[in-house]
Specification:
The complex is a heterodimer of chains A (about 260) and B (about 450).
Chain A (H helix, E strand, L loop, with lengths): L7 H8 L3 H37 L2 E11 L9 E8 L3 E7 L10 E10 L12 E3 L2 E4 L2 E4 L2 E7 L17 E4 L5 E6 L10 E5 L2 H5 L11 E9 L12 E21 L1
Chain B lengths: L7 H21 L5 H31 L17 H23 L10 H22 L13 H21 L2 H22 L2 H5 L3 H11 L7 H32 L3 H22 L1 H9 L7 H29 L8 H29 L4 H17 L1 H8 L6 H7 L11 H27 L1
The chains are: A alpha+beta (about 260), B mainly alpha (about 450).
Chain lengths: ~260, ~450
């Protein structure tokens, strides 16, 4: 006649009947508990708070350190000078892959300055412009008509071709320099600080650390119409044009302002 | 080269077919002991629930045109969708079925005539309570369900150790069948977690969990939920180490067996995965420290072929093997034989073709070659059908016969209607919980 009655105590007694089962089973359970204990401690003490912190949006102030890409100390990236004849229409290319953008910096915008020969914008130039006439000790010249345009699209220069801050063309006949600008980096507002919400510093900075903007060629088309003045002074049938290109680079940094 | 395909729809089909066929065959196996019949029903419902879970997952994958659930985040419409709630509800019920299975099979801890009633009622009530709480708390605590698995795992490990030691001591083969089925159930339940065992032991799975918590904005577990996830990973790690130690000891005394080979393979996969995981820790931590970097393609392929294949393709095959080899269903009965054969060949063909497709996803194998390979597999299965069936349904004691011989099982007078009530109750519970999901997704 069987003694086994199917009760829980009888079943457990059967399962643990052999001592060797107990001897083998208990260390297994202890080892399992040990694994669970130290991994749980790591998880709860080190990871859960971290994840909570990481998943919480914080406010960051993004500021920009700016300077001009310049390898010879003249505060210009490119400097072009040439004498053109009346009626010349020329396109001058400046290749940006040749310039030394610093590590951690990105090209924010590019300024182009076109300076006529008579212009007081050139260092050392002495004289004054009155009613379109350049007056200096060497004589009088009528200011020439110059127009300049930044040519291209994102296939030639990667930038913000439709940005409101751009000045893509200009003209002058008053012996004044022409200033052009193209913003290359998206959402870059020329040195202004911005506030950003993000879970960490990297993601706060992520809009301003993308490579590829400002790559390509800056093409400046200049149209020249030399005006000859009938007054006192030498005959004027040509023009010396100076083009100065300043590539502005920036490095973003983020400061935590509130958690 | 084809694109990498998701295994989830295949797993859904395999699990659903196997589940329904299992329940049909159990209903026809009236001569079996209550242990086999009840275990068969539980396994059948586990497979159906897993099949439904994978079906809803597939629908979500289709919706977001992506693979896996990595893509579920607050930026898409799945957050409050019926499919998300239904998928998680089916998972909850399948976990509850897994929780109670070790109390019945292979070594019944509950041996009373009210067994089926109490277990069925517990599963149904807990399903309703837990799935509702999970929906209302946005699944923050739902990973804590894994704590319920602790008693079942302890029972299976205890049964495995006891009968393995008895086999080594007495040299009697029949003991092996008990330790074998307990070991197979452990792999079927925790196979995925077993493939992460080294990463868990050296505690780098925590970094993965932190990454996933950041990456998947919908997975926002509470501390209890975190611990539940860590618990199931720890159970997987410790059980594969226990199996490894005891199978090695058994191999030393009795020689190597097929199950020992499977355990060694899973252990090797887990070891390799741990080393690979350690190698990409910078990428894993990128989510927390900077922004999430994608895993390398080779890493994804590795997991497609190891953990995912084990979860989606081999787990149903392990259950099928248990059903047939341990005679849970009466496959010898003439009215069951054709259905059993169809089921086996269908399962093997689906799994084989999926593996071939998976291979084709990253190897530059022309489709002509893969078609030829599939044709060869079909020919082998048809040609060796008899041999495959004989091996699967190898003669041997059922678990209950073994326990009755050992005078450790009583045969209470269980009302035959209890089995039908169990199936009806499960179907009702699944239907009712899905209605809750549909209503909740409609009103929020």
């Amino acid at each position: 006649m069987s003694d086994f009655d199917g009760s829980l105590s009888a079943i457990m007694a059967n399962l643990f009947h052999e001592n060797r089962t107990k001897t083998a089973f208990i260390p297994c359970i202890l080892a399992s508990a040990l694994i669970f204990s130290y991994t749980s401690a790591d998880l709860v003490l080190n990871q859960t708070d971290l994840v909570e912190y990481v998943k919480t949006d914080k406010s960051w102030e993004i500021s920009f350190e700016n300077n001009i890409v310049d390898d010879d100390g003249d505060n210009l990236t490119f400097d072009f000078n040439d004498i053109w004849a009346d009626g010349d229409v020329k396109v001058i290319d400046f290749f940006l892959d040749e310039i030394p953008v610093n590590e951690g910096y990105f090209v924010g915008y590019i300024d182009v300055k076109i300076i006529p020969e008579e212009c007081n914008g050139v260092d050392g130039s002495e004289g004054q412009c009155e009613n379109g006439i350049w007056l200096s000790d060497g004589g009088e010249w009528e200011c020439d008509s110059i127009s300049a345009t930044l040519l291209g699209d994102n296939s030639s220069l990667s930038g913000q071709w439709f940005d409101a801050g751009n000045t893509l063309s200009g003209s002058d006949s008053d012996c004044e320099p022409i200033y052009l600008r193209i913003v290359t980096y998206p959402e870059y507002y020329l040195h202004e600080t911005v506030n950003q919400t993000a879970v960490n510093e990297f993601q706060a900075l992520s809009p301003w650390i993308n490579d590829g903007w400002g790559d390509g060629v800056v093409s400046v088309q200049v149209n020249l119409d030399v005006n000859s003045y009938g007054g006192w002074g030498p005959m004027d049938d040509s023009e010396e044009i100076t083009i100065q290109v300043s590539v502005h680079q920036f490095r973003p940094s983020a400061i935590l302002i509130s958690e | 080269m084809a694109e990498s395909q998701s295994l989830v729809p295949v797993a859904a089909i395999v699990d659903l077919i196997l589940g329904f066929v299992t329940i049909a065959l159990v209903r026809r196996s009236s001569q079996k002991e209550w242990v086999e019949k009840f275990a068969g029903l539980l396994i059948g419902w586990i497979l159906i629930l897993k099949g439904l879970e994978y079906t809803f997952t597939s629908v979500m994958e289709t919706i977001v045109a992506n693979e896996g659930l990595w893509i579920i985040d607050s930026s898409n419409d799945l957050q409050d969708s019926f499919f998300r709630f239904a998928q998680r509800t089916c998972k909850t019920i399948s976990i509850l079925l897994l929780v109670f299975l070790p109390f019945i099979y292979p070594y019944p801890i509950l041996q009373r005539k009210w067994n089926i009633k109490v277990v069925t009622a517990s599963i149904c009530v807990l399903s309703l309570i837990l799935s509702t709480i999970s929906i209302l708390t946005n699944y923050r605590h739902s990973d804590g369900e894994w704590f319920l698995l602790i008693p079942g795992m302890m029972i299976l490990v205890l049964v495995y150790i006891r009968f393995l030691l008895m086999e080594i001591e007495t040299g009697e083969n029949s003991h092996r069948r008990m330790s074998l089925v307990a070991g197979l159930l452990l792999i079927a339940m925790l196979g995925e977690q077993m493939t992460y065992w080294l990463a868990q032991v050296i505690s780098i799975n925590d970094d993965f969990l932190a990454r996933f918590a950041v990456e998947w904005s919908l997975w926002d577990p509470s501390t209890f939920g975190w611990l539940g996830t860590n618990l199931v990973l720890s159970m997987g790690a410790s059980t594969i180490l226990i199996l490894l130690v005891f199978e090695s000891w058994r191999t030393y005394h009795m020689g190597i067996s097929g199950f020992s080979t499977i355990v060694y393979l899973v252990a090797i996969v887990g070891c390799t995965a741990g080393i690979v995981d350690y190698a990409i820790m910078d990428i894993v931590r990128s989510c927390v420290e900077t922004e999430c970097e994608s895993f390398p393609a080779a890493f994804e392929i590795w997991y497609d072929f190891t953990s995912e294949t084990l979860i989606y393709l081999f787990t149903p095959l392990i259950f099928m093997y248990i059903l047939l080899n341990f005679d849970i269903i009466d496959s010898d009965a003439s009215e069951n034989r054709w259905l059993t054969r169809i089921m086996v060949i269908l399962m093997l063909l689906i799994v084989s073709s999926s593996v071939i497709e998976l291979l084709q996803s990253f190897l530059p194998v022309p489709e002509m070659i893969s078609s030829a390979a599939l044709a060869m597999v079909v020919a082998i299965f048809i040609g060796w059908e008899e041999r495959i069936m004989t091996n699967l349904m190898r003669e041997g004691d059922t678990v209950s016969q073994k326990l009755i011989e050992m005078d450790e099982l009583i045969v209470p007078k269980i009302d035959e209607r209890d089995y039908d009530i169990m199936s009806a109750s499960m179907a009702g519970t699944v239907f009712f919980t899905l209605i809750i999901c549909a209503l909740y997704s409609a009103v929020i």
